Amino acid sequence: MPDLIEHGSGEYEETVALRDEVLRKSLGLSYDPTELAGEKESFHFALRDGVQLVACLVLKPLDEGCIKMRQLAVRENLQCKGFGRELVNYAESFAQGRGCEEIVLHARETARGFYEKLGYDTEGDSFTEVGLPHLVMRKKF
Ligand SMILES: CC(C)(COP(=O)(O)OP(=O)(O)OC[C@H]1O[C@@H](n2cnc3c(N)ncnc32)[C@H](O)[C@@H]1OP(=O)(O)O)[C@@H](O)C(=O)NCCC(=O)NCCS
C-alpha cells in the first residue's frame, strides 16, 4: 500500500531522485531547490515493493474541491506492472476523502492512454511543458 510521506524527509528525497531519473534526466533537465521548496504545501506519496521505492506521485491542492495530480513516476524497469494504477487509485481515494470533487493533471501525450484507462478525459489542445507535448486531463468524482 502507498504511503503519505513528509516534504523534506529522507523518503521525500528518495522520491525526488526517482522523479529525476524517470522524468528529468532523459530531457537533460533537473530539479532546482526553489521548485522543490514550492512543493511544501503538496501531498507526497510513495509506493514500495519491499524496501525498493517503485513509484511516486504529488497532489497539489488548487481551488476548493480540485486537486492537481503531478509528477507520477514509476521506476523504468518496473513499468506496466500495475504500480502506476495502484498509486493513482490510492491518491484518488485520499483526495476524495478530503472532499475533492475532481482531479486535473497535465499528461504527457505518451501517457494519455494510461490516464484514459483510469477514467480521465482530455480537454483542449496539446501544449508544451518541459519541452514535451502535454494534454490537460480531468476526472470528476
Ligand atoms: C505512465 C506510467 C505512470 C504508467 O504507470 P505503470 O505502472 O507503467 O502503468 P500500469 O501498469 O499501472 O498500467 C495500467 C494500464 O495502463 C496501461 N498503460 C501503461 N502505460 C501506458 C502508456 N504510456 N500508454 C498507454 N497505456 C499505458 C497498461 O498497459 C495497463 O493497461 P491494462 O489495464 O489494460 O493492463 C509509467 O509508465 C511511467 O512512469 N512512465 C514514464 C513517466 C511518465 O510518463 N509519467 C507520467 C507523466 S504525465
Structure overview:
By secondary structure, the protein is α+β, with helices and mostly antiparallel strands. It is built from four helices and seven strands, in the order βααβββαβαββ. The chain is globular and about 35 Å long. The longest helix is centred in the N-terminal third of the chain and has 15 residues, at about 10-25. The relative contact order is 0.15. A seven-stranded mixed sheet has the order 1-2-3-4-5-7-6, sandwiched between helices. A hairpin with a 2-residue loop joins β2 (about 45-50) and β3. The chain has helices at about 10-25, 35, 85-95, 110-115; strands spanning about 5, 45-50, 50-60, 65-75, 100-110, 120-130, 130-140. It has one domain (about 5-100): Gcn5-related N-acetyltransferase (GNAT) (Aminopeptidase). The structure holds coenzyme A. The site of coenzyme A has 19 residues, from α1, β4, α3, β5 and α4.
